[in-house]
Amino acid sequence: MTSLPQKIMILGSGELGKEVTIAAQRLGCNVIACDRYRDAPAMQVADSYEVFDMSNSTELLNIINKNKPNIIIPEIEAIEVNTLIEIEKQGITVIPNANATAITMNRDKIRNLAAEELGLKTPKFSYASDENELLKASELYELPVIIKPIMSSSGKGQSFIDNKEELINGWNTAIKNARGKSARVIIEEFINFDQEITLLTIRQKDGSVLFCDPIGHEQSNGDYQCSWQPAEIKPKQLETAKEMAKKVTEKLGGTGLFGVEFFICGEEVIFSELSPRPHDTGLVTIISQNLNEFELHLRAVLGFPIPRITRSKAAASRVILAKDVIDNIVYEGVDEALQDDDTKVLIFGKPKSRKGRRMGVTLAIDENIIKARKKADKSASLIKVKRKDNNL
Questions:
Q1: What's the domain range around 39?
Q2: 273 is catalytic
Q3: What is d(CA 312, CA 315) in angstroms, rounded to the nearest whole number?
Q4: Label partner for 154 (CA 20 to 30 A): which of 133, 223, 319, 361?
């Protein structure tokens, strides 16, 4: 039996960390939100917060020792994982566990685990540690190819390369946008997929595994733009995806919710990536399910029961993007965006914007995916991120 309150430290205080914080507090937990800048979304709702460099071992250890959490939930990739491994040995629970966190924050480790150790179907791939290795590796593939940093988040640093002259630009983009000090990239074949899906996979403390209905999504420049649930895939493909997700999450171990991504190509199901935490495409579950992905994550983390996961109607999400660099933000059009039935708006509360930054999301449900997506798209189009007029 779990005694409350548990003291939970969230490493990464963006929009997903904010929802994790809310879910934890609703279950009676005390939350310390951490990030590298002040007023991050999760800090606005947490019991307390810390601002520091989470990739710095000394700073991370000092903050952990100061706050003495029972549970640490990493929400981003730029974390000094060796410190988490040592902390776990001292009896602090890391979610899903420190080793899984270390593996999944590096594309080479999770890809090697999936493709070589577990034998899952993945895109063909190679690694390069300098420009010459990249050029040599590119000869193994027909163009186009995808170049990604080994360590990054939300598609940052990813390039679609369709001619040899752009390969070095792809290298530079990957290295510039890599998390941490990584100087290695992955080059992989371009998969002309029919659709991408996320299969939210929940590992409970007793080792049992649950799944949400598959979520379809679209990306631009490697970053999530919209998602919908359920994704329409064949029953056999769904069973294959579940088998693959169960295989890789069981190998990683630990508890909590994992976002497992797949390409659907004809009859094939191809493993793409995995996040050991709630997934941005899963924001749609806030409106679609009886228990959203954040609530499922916390129930699994705390060892609470999950009797049943149900979905009401077809649902969709669409991100609200900023167009400019603004440090004094107001949102216009929220009232118009909420005029339709079964529509929600989530403003993340980020203190500053930049071009293309996700500032919020609209959510909608309807009788089918087409109607739900149109409703979410319409709502998002009505909301504008603008600079506050100080004269008002």
A1: 7-94
A2: yes
A3: 9
A4: 133
**122 catalytic per annotation:** no
State the amino acid at position 67 in one-letter form: N
- Cα angle for residues 170, 195, 203 (degrees, 5° grid): 95
Which residue, of 189, 221, 241, is where some domain finishes? Answer: 189
Question: What are the percentages of helix, strand and coil residues in the chain, rounded to 5?
Answer: 35, 30, 40
Residue 108: band (very low, low, confident or very high) from pLDDT cuts 50, 70, 90 = confident
Nearest-5° Cα angle at 224, 263 to 244: 30
Band of residue 153 on the pLDDT scale cut at 50, 70, 90: low
Structure token digits, residue 139: 């000869």
pLDDT in tens, 228-250: 999 999 999 999 999 999 999 99
- Please list the residues that pair with 73 across neighbouring strands: 10
- Mark whether 281 is an active-site residue: yes
19, 50, 273, 295: the active-site residue: 273
| Catalytic entry in 281, 288, 353, 379 | 281
- The answer on 217 and 325 residing in a single domain is yes
Same domain, 259 and 332: yes
Beta strands at 30-35 and 7-11: parallel, antiparallel or unpaired: parallel
Q: Is 194 annotated as catalytic? A: no
- Would you give the DSSP letter of residue 113? I
β-pair type (314-321, 223-229): antiparallel
CA distance 6 to 334: 36
Residue 111 lies in a domain: no
pLDDT over 90 percentage in the chain: 84
Catalytic status, residue 129: no
Instruction: Based on the residue annotation, tell me whether 293 is a catalytic residue of this protein.
Output: no
Domain of residue 263, CATH code: 3.30.470.20
Which DSSP helix (H) or strand (E) runs through 269?
Answer: strand 268-275
Q: Which of 126, 358, 362, 379 is catalytic?
A: 358
318 occurs within a structural domain: yes
- The pairs formed by 28-31 with CB atoms below 8 angstroms and a separation of 24 or more are 28/4, 29/4, 29/5, 29/298, 29/302, 30/5, 30/6
User: In the chain, what percentage of residues exceed pLDDT 70?
Assistant: 97
Q: Does 261 qualify as catalytic in the annotation?
A: yes
Which run of H or E residues covers position 195?
Answer: strand 195-203
Buried b (16+ CB within 10 A) or exposed e, 17-49: bbbbbbbbbebebbbbbbbeeeebbbbbbbeeb
Structural domains in the chain (count): 3
Instruction: Decide if pLDDT at 43 tops 70.
Output: yes
